[in-house]
Amino acid sequence: MNTMRIFLSRLVTHPLALTVLLVALFFGASYLRGATLQILSFALVSILFTQSINVLTGMAGQISLGHAAFFGIGSYGSAILAQALGLNLFLTIPVAAIVSSLIAYLLSYPAGRVKEVYLAMMTLGFGQIFLEVAREWTDLTGGVMGLSGVPSAGLGTLIILGYKFSTIDYFRVLLLITACSMLFIRNFSQSRLGRSLFVMHYSELAAGSVGIARRQTKQLAYALSGLLAGISGGFYAHLVGYLGPESFAISRSIEVLVVAIVGGLWSSAGQVISAVFFTFLPEQLQLFADYQFIVYGLILTFTLILFKQGIGGLLFLPPRFIRQAWLVAATQPQRSDAPTNEPAFLKIQAKPAGIEVQAITMRFGGLVALNAVSLNIQAGQITALIGPNGSGKSTLVNVIAGVFPPTAGQVLLEGLDVTARSDVAMAKMGVVRTFQDPRLVPHFTVRENMMLGAHVKMQYSWLEAGLSMPRVRAQEAKALQQCNEILQLLDIEAVAEQAVESLPYGYRRMTELGRALLAQPKIILLDEPAAGLSDLEMARLAEILVKLKRLGITVLLIEHHMDFLMGLVDEVVVLDSGSIIFKGDMLGMRQDPAVIAAYLGDDEAQHA
Fold first, then answer.
1. Which strand (E) or helix (H) includes residue 372?
2. Which domains does the chain have, with CATH numbers?
3. 53, 67 in Cβ contact below 8 A?
4. Sign of the C-alpha dihedral, residues 309, 313, 315, 316?
């Protein structure tokens, strides 16, 4: 079975095989019956529409139950422009698609404030609003009577620059547009922007920790999804020649979700198969039209129970989100076992950065998590933050990293007041963190997860990404080279191409650390980095932290393993009930009566 998946995956990604298929469909259209061409054209429209859901739901994790509205905006927009102004579809469809994209962009503002069921309900409401507008705005849309007379190839009324488009011509244009759109989405998904959508799907905190802006990323997903839905809707309008409001009801939104899920979210090849299947299926269910959606529901249930990754997961290998050609082209560093082997790009060129907190207070309602905490984290040193559970350690790190704005007090980075700056802004300024539990994209490989850290160091746009422009290739290759150096530093090269969900906990810890390092931090905040590691892995982690110190990176870590900290840290800070009770070296900490009473206990003190 796995051999077949490998073969099929190579086949559907091989440029020559895809070119042969495209050419065969393009020229073979002349030998197909009109009815068959019509159904194939509907299948292509469905593929385009499904890709819009793939971007928004599959990649960004934003549930949409009103996506038919964007499809409808593209349909009505192109049809109305064609009828009112006499413009051809090469003008009307782009304009309508841009309008759909802009409305989707505007919708992203309220959508970005809600999640899960509330997001689903909000998008459902948007879809219903569009449906009511289409029904009631009779002068523009024709109301419940519909909009007839739309220039259509099937009806022989589609004329462009004096040339009457036949069904064959229309199919060929639609085929090329669909192929180009899928190529664009593939390129986009294998870029820094495509990968950023996935991390937003699984952990917005992780996204912010490496400088990925949450709001802008969601807006991009909505806008691109709306654009694709608008394009598909425009082609649908000129395919059918008549538009009625019921064509854009919630049933169409549900249908496209079913197609995407059955095909397999993230798998474009699986979704193509699913779209073709669900386009031809209604033709076989004419006698059971009243039960069509029951059949759809049964197929969806069957898919989710037996193969959760859909047709794509069953037939193909998981898609990858780094271009293999760029990975090969990236300069491979020479393996070295020397203890001083350190990535040169991480070295702090100017003096190391320090960070200071002054009288930080953090309240959550009536709970005081931090009480006027003042701390100077020395530049270029390793500082440990310890204390009993609930003492405020993670809260202090969250305040420093910009996750929480403090109730009172100041945070100074190299003398600059950065109080209440967001985690995204702090990451861009060089303050990067990891989490108590690794927050990774499960189906990403180790390398793909680590490449998320290079997001802010690459500056190309979404359009450049989709078109695979030279700047994209150059920046991705540079980041991949740096990723190779980090993999070598962490000694996890052997598992670089494995999905993190299949790896032991220790590798996940190292992957998250690698992601943080690829962001090129000046200050790195580690939340219990040794938790769950074996003795050998902890020894390796200690070596890595020493190397980071030599490179000039300031390290603040929360930790409970006293043996791990001994001989590693320059200073230890002990928190208890939101207040600092000790600052100094490890030996002094183990002998301090307040620390013994609050945290270590008599047994640990005697062991010291």
1. strand 367-377
2. 2-321 (1.10.3470), 352-607 (3.40.50.300)
3. yes
4. positive
Going from the C-alpha of 453 to that of each of 201, 318, 362, 427, 460, the distances in angstroms are 16, 22, 29, 10, 15
pLDDT exceeds 80 at position 285: no
Helix (H) or strand (E) holding 232: helix 214-240
Residue 82, CB-side half-sphere exposure with 13 Å CA sphere: 31
The whole-model pTM stands at: 0.91
How do residues 465-489 score in pLDDT, each as one tens digit? 999 999 999 999 999 999 999 999 9
pLDDT of 604 above 60: no
Q: How far apart are CA 78 and CA 81, in angstroms?
A: 5
> What is the rounded CA–CA span in Å between residue 25 and residue 168?
11
Q: Is the pLDDT of residue 527 over 70?
A: yes
Instruction: Name the nearest CA neighbour of 60 among 147, 188, 250, 155.
Output: 188
β-strands 382-386, 408-413 pairing: unpaired
Which segments within 168-317 are labelled E, that is strand?
A: none
Q: Strand 408-413 vs strand 355-364: parallel, antiparallel, or unpaired?
A: antiparallel
Rounded CA Rg of the chain: 28
DSSP string computed for 432-447: EE--SS----TTSBHH
Residue 508: exposure state from Cβ atoms within 10 A (0-12, 13-18, ≥19): buried
Specify whether the CB–CB gap between 180 and 197 falls below 8 A.
no
Percent of the chain with pLDDT over 90: 66
Q: Are 270 and 311 in contact (CB under 8 A)?
A: yes
For residue range 102-125, what is the model confidence (pLDDT) as tens digits? 999 999 999 888 888 888 899 999
> Phi and psi dihedrals of 573, rounded to 5?
-120, 130
Q: pLDDT tens digits, residue range 76-85?
A: 999 999 998 8
